[in-house]
Amino acid sequence: MKSVQALSLLTLLALAVTGDNDLDTKCGKNEVWDDCASSCPDICFEPPAELCDKKCNIGCFCEKGYVREYLDGGKCVRPDTCESRLTGRTSFPR
């Protein structure tokens, strides 16, 4: 009987822990959840980082083939859609 109660308690605990994670992993269009993403994501108008730390970053990041619109955020877009209204530069995709 005690083993059934212990198993039930462990099952409820596992469901509670995994249920909370679902809220954190909802990402926007062209984004994916990553538990260990680069500190140097690709960004429109920014050349690829020459030096980048190996620190894991948790959160929503652009899917492969997409870049972040702006240094401080924005949508994930295809590199060929990056346009600069000020300088006419193109993106620097990797």
Q: What report would you give on this structure?
A:
The longest helix has 23 residues, at 2-24. The radius of gyration is 20 Å and the shape is flat. The chain is built from one helix and four strands, in the order αββββ. The model is unreliable at 6-21 (pLDDT under 50). By secondary structure, it is of the alpha+beta class. The termini are far apart. The protein has one helix spanning 2-24; strands at residues 31-37, 57-62, 67-70, 73-77. It has a two-stranded antiparallel ribbon. Strands 3-4 form a two-stranded antiparallel ribbon. Helices cover 24% and strands 23% of the residues. The protein has one domain: Laminin (Ribbon). This is TIL domain-containing protein. Keywords: Disulfide bond, Protease inhibitor, Signal. Residues 27-82 form the TIL domain. GO terms for molecular function: peptidase inhibitor activity. It comes from Anopheles coluzzii.
What descriptors fit this protein?
94 residues, alpha+beta, Laminin, two-stranded antiparallel ribbon, 4 strands, peptidase inhibitor activity, signal, protease inhibitor, Ser_inhib-like_sf, disulfide bond
Helix-strand pattern: HEEEE
Q: Roughly what is the average pLDDT, rounded to an integer? A: 75
Largest sheet: spatial strand order:
1-2
CATH top level label: Mainly Beta
Topology at a glance:
Elements: H1 2-24, E1 31-37, E2 57-62, E3 67-70, E4 73-77
Antiparallel strand pairs: 1-2, 3-4
Question: How would you concisely characterize the structure shown here?
Answer:
The chain contains one helix and four strands; from the N terminus they run αββββ.
